[in-house]
Amino acid sequence: MLKPEDIQTRHRDLNWLSFNERVLQEAQDPSTPLYERLKFLAIFSMNLDEYFRVRVSQLRQMKRVKKSIRKKLALKPSKTVKEILEIVKEQQNRFGKVYTQEIIPELEKKGIFLVHGKDYDEKQKEFARKYFHKIKECVKPVLVEYENGGDLFLKNNALYLMVTFENEDNFGIVNVPVEECNRFIHFTTKTEDHKITFLDDIIKANMADIFSDHKIEGIFEIKLSRDAELYIDDDLDGILAEKIYESLKQRTDGQPTRLLYDSDMPKDDQRILRKTLNLGKIDMMPGGKYHNFSDFFSFPDPTKNSELHFEPLPSIKHKVLETSKDYFEEISKKDLSVHFPYMPFDYVERFLQQAAEDKDVKEIKISIYRVAEESVVTTALLSALEKGKKVTVFIEAKARFDEKNNIDWGRKFEEHGAEVIYSFPKIKVHSKILLVTREENDSIKNYAYIGTGNFNSKTSKIYCDHAIFTAHEKITAELARVFQVLEGELIIPRTKHLLISPFTTRKTFSDMINREIENARLGKSSGITAKMNSLEDKEIIELLYKASEAGVKIRLLVRGFTCLIPGVKGMSENIYITSIVDRFLEHGRIYVFENDGKEEIFFGSADWMTRNLDRRIEVIAPIYDKDIAKEFKEILNLQLNDNVKARIHDAEESNQFVQRKDDEPAIRSQYAIYNYLKKIHS
């Protein structure tokens, strides 16, 4: 029997860095097309920016907690931040080597040259001068005195150049106006080679014009990341959405969490900058000469060379939905599943469009976590309102980084007559659900869509998600009760089929794990297979350890971080975990329980994280349709057997790739899933 002192877990924030390491591995992989390697560097950089703005910021907030309380709760934020910075520094060194020693030389072989300011020839200097004068109004230089620099404010994640002068007690700060101008500028030269430069370098090349009365000593790029959380009184007074809207300025003005600076900056200048911005030494992080590598998402390919990009994967046409003129008729006959990005998001949009146009549809209810800025989904909902249908939209106003857009859309829906419900205090609504009520044969019938991903056509092309259309009476009736909870009509939904957080999900999952434990002890068949984004909940982890100890074979796919330590003798030796990072972002959640041969399979929006089980409204649905259950299992099995892009979560978090045996075929699961779906829908 496991004793409490034997139970080990990982720190989520340290383990998250292992996930970003896997992204960096994709950038390092020479078999990945060149421009896709650049994109993986951009993803790595973007991930790290958000990590510092959210997770590292939260650790620093913990430092404000009384030392006695921190000790009691075993919180060591300073120690953790120090470990984080050491790991990030090592990762960024490798990032720099991949970029400078591998990707840049490969680009040059393809006739694409990234020219730095120090290497401009006379024609390029002239081009830079003319270009600078076109954008000069967007460049806002500031002189900062050493003694009175406290008022200097740097925007979150914006690029700036620190300019030092000879024998002066001040320095200059110059913005790099990426939002107003392109980050990458293509030189207009009549050569076969393509010469591209950074906007940063064009500004540097003209710095003598900006500070004509000063003798420039050095120019160094800097970027400040700020706390991304909104610290709001989460009470019931006033409209929470309005409070969020008003609080968004906190994000741009938030506490600094990291200053990234050119590592060539002299120590005296580092000290001056740190004091000016009122930062601690721990806030300073050396980097390369260029920051914000997320801009490489838009790095131009003037060659239009298809070999530099992933081969296009044409969308798979669903054998029923593609040609159907009446989705309601088809869904009445049988549950239908869709899988993104392998299939087009059009099917969800068409369903909503049909619901908006259908004279028998009386009501549409939808829960939206991240609203697309302008989409067929929003247009269809507005169209339904114009046709007199009742539309209820739950909008999660606390979806991080989408707060403003979500609230703006909520107001627009309200203006057109929708009933709009915003966030609840202290809880987020993360479920991806849609309910359409239709009058048929003098009675009311419900149609539902339950998914693992957002109602967003743009992200559906990048994220791997699963969804089911269903008219199952009991499932749709229970989903209607979920919407009643969102509308404030029910406090606790009565459900026997759906798992609803924060009401029944934890208990149901715990009961199912305990059932597998009991079956294993009785010599019955047992097993747990699950796919999720992250695994962090302590109670679930302890139950999984107990299941492993009882002999339950546990096979997990965890894309991101996991606090569970697999493969430890006497604790987790029956738990094996892999992670897949590839062309698309794995985002679906699937849970399978052996149940002594009477297998049960679920899917939905919740990970095994405390927030998903206790602090969010989530929907996890059983899969009753035998064909769809078989389909989900096949997709899951292909991922479990991935031996090309799967890495092993082990006790050391070494991120070793799964090794393929000599007699085994190569299985790259995302491509295998594409081929499988293409075959069954042909």
Describe the structure.
GO terms for molecular function: polyphosphate kinase activity. The active site is at residue 430. With 682 residues, the chain is an alpha/beta fold. The chain folds into four domains: 1-110, Polyphosphate kinase N-terminal domain (Methane Monooxygenase Hydroxylase, Chain G, domain 1), CATH 1.20.58.310; 119-300, Polyphosphate kinase middle domain (polyphosphate kinase like), CATH 3.30.1840; 327-493, Endonuclease Chain A (Endonuclease, Chain A); 501-680, Endonuclease, Chain A. 37% of the residues lie in helices and 21% in strands. Helix 9 (267-276) links the parallel strand 8 (256-262) and strand 9 (284-287). Helix 1 (12-28) runs antiparallel to helix 2 (34-62), helix 1 runs parallel beside helix 4 and helix 18 packs antiparallel against helix 19 (669-680).
Topology (SSEs and partners):
Elements (H helix, E strand, L loop, with lengths): L11 H17 L5 H29 L4 H6 L4 H33 L2 E4 L6 H14 L6 E4 L13 E7 L4 E6 L8 E3 L7 E5 H7 L1 H4 L5 E11 L13 H14 L2 E7 L4 H10 L7 E4 L39 H7 L2 E5 L5 H12 L3 E8 L7 H11 L3 E6 L7 H13 L3 E3 L6 E2 L2 E9 L2 E9 L11 E8 L2 H14 L12 E3 L3 H17 L6 E5 L5 H13 L3 E5 L16 E6 L4 E2 L3 E4 L6 E5 L5 H5 L1 E7 L3 H15 L5 E4 L19 H12 L2
Parallel strand pairs: 1-6, 8-9, 11-12, 12-13, 14-25, 17-22, 19-20, 20-21
Antiparallel strand pairs: 2-4, 3-4, 3-7, 5-6, 7-8, 10-17, 11-15, 15-16, 16-17, 18-25, 19-23, 21-26, 23-24, 24-25
